[in-house]
Amino acid sequence: MVMVSQGRLRAAFARRLSEMYGQEVPAYRTLVEVCQKVNDGVLRRAGAGAERLGSIERVTAERHGAIRVGTPAELRQVSRIFGALGMYPVGFYDLREAAASAVPVISTAFRPVAADELAGDPFRVFTSMLTPADPRFFDPDLRERLARFLAGRQLFPPELLELADRAARERELPQEQAARFTHLAVQAFALGREPIDQAWYETLERISAVAADIGGVSSTHINHLTPRVLDIDDLYARMTERGITMIDQIQGPPRWSGPDVLLRQTSFRALAEPRALRRPDGGLTTGSLRVRFGEVEARGIALTRAGRERYDDLQARADTYPDSRTDDRTDDRTDDRTDDRSADRSADGRADNRADNRADGTDGRARAARALWEREFPATERDLAVERLAFFTYQPVPDRPRDGRRPGTGLADLIDHGWVGAEPIVYEDFLPRSAAGIFQSNLTGQGVKDDSHTAADYDSDWLSGAIGAEVLDPFTLYESQQRRSLQETAHALGLPEIT
Ligand code: OOG
Ligand code: NI
Known about the structure:
- By secondary structure, this protein is an alpha+beta fold.
- The chain has 2 domains: 3-302 and 326-362 and 425-468, 2,3-Dihydroxybiphenyl 1,2-Dioxygenase, domain 1; 391-424 and 474-499, no CATH class.
- It is 47% helix and 16% strand.
- The protein contains 21 helices and 12 strands.
- The protein has helices at residues 6-24, 26-46, 56-61, 72-84, 95-98, 115-120, 140-151, 158-170, 175-188, 198-207, 209-215, 232-241, 305-319, 332-347, 353-359, 364-376, 381-386, 411-416, 432-441, 460-467, 474-493, and strands at residues 3-5, 63-69, 88-94, 105-111, 124-130, 172-174, 196-197, 224-227, 263-278, 284-299, 392-396, 420-424.
- The strands form 4 sheets. The protein has a 5-stranded mixed sheet with strand order 3-4-5-2-8. A 3-stranded mixed sheet has the order 7-9-10.
- Helix 4 (72-84) packs across helix 8 (158-170), helix 8 packs across helix 9 and helix 10 (198-207) packs antiparallel against helix 11.
- The longest helix has 21 residues, at 26-46.
- The N and C termini lie far apart (50 Å).
- The relative contact order is 0.15.
- Bound molecules: 2-oxoadipic acid and nickel (II) ion.
- 2-oxoadipic acid binds next to strand 2, strand 5 and helix 19.
């Protein structure tokens, strides 16, 4: 019997999901096509350097999706399905606080955690769950009606869940069952065709478009599927040239001359899609809803807690810059300097200035952010490593000095004297502020959030309990990968430890 491993099952699912989404959302196909062109270009210009943060095979296949569910019971089922694919909940995101408009959800991301699984196919799904217990959004009556509606729907057929449990238990499925699992799973995440109760949908929409998208329909759906691009500024410019209106900025770190860190994302607005609606009088009509959108991302090096604090601080300071397009001229000095440095950047095959003019060159805040980064954020991988601001795996350099000298134990010395090499660890997670920005850019209205009520408490432990599996801490995962490599390197060099 031919068996399909969890890793291959995950890759197959990601591929099939992408085919389904491409059929349903043509703009997604354009996005993938443009990503491909950009990535080919970077590969041509930068050669092996383009693969510093993952092989081109990984990057080409790499996607993340997002889904939203209503209850802990639904979330547990999602967890069983992704568990079959070797994906586990990592990270807790509270978007109720991160977003300015009403986004009544908490989230985690299901993803592989082992380095070899991530290198194979890192498919991940940002998964949000409604927070009906939060009185800032829902009054007792609506909470009750929501609970009743959600209890009455079935997102996943029992056969899918049984196959999922088997795959998780046996860590593989026979080919035939694997095909059936993939088919059912892809279907479960397609856009629902059942008529939507218009009055109920609109009731929820007044509170929050996200609440309506989750609790107003009888199924769940992938609301975007995000490819990975190696030069997001170039992509932004090309999409704009093709007449696709992107949100007005790229979320995350600014474009700058130093290493890519964390995550940069941008998106285009959900397209209006026809949906069957059931009117209050029982008749059917066709309406249009905007629930599926396009997003693209560039990934960088994972930051340590200290690095992340540095990042958050720089972002907060950049935010205080007035967002005005007339500020450009006041900033000339900064501009000269950053332009000098971006010349180096093109030399190693990165974005040219073309994208800069569009994506952030006309935006005072983005330029300020960039200037701030050029001034304050370490500009080399080496500095990020020795200042313990980013995560790396370390290994002994094969042709290290063999002159009989004993190396010291300090990381900086070991790197600088050619004993130890550092490979960046890719950031595999999400950023709450960017996620909130993505949610927000797709909402039709602000919704209602009544701050005279106290927020309902939800945290990572609560979510672990709801899922029935521990929500893993991303920092701990990166940290242990780095620590293992430091221990092995120390051992290989005959050192007691590396400090
Ligand atoms: C999820 C938005 C978050 C990201 O990439 O930050 C997200 C959603 O809209 O359901 O996918
Ligand atoms: Ni996303």
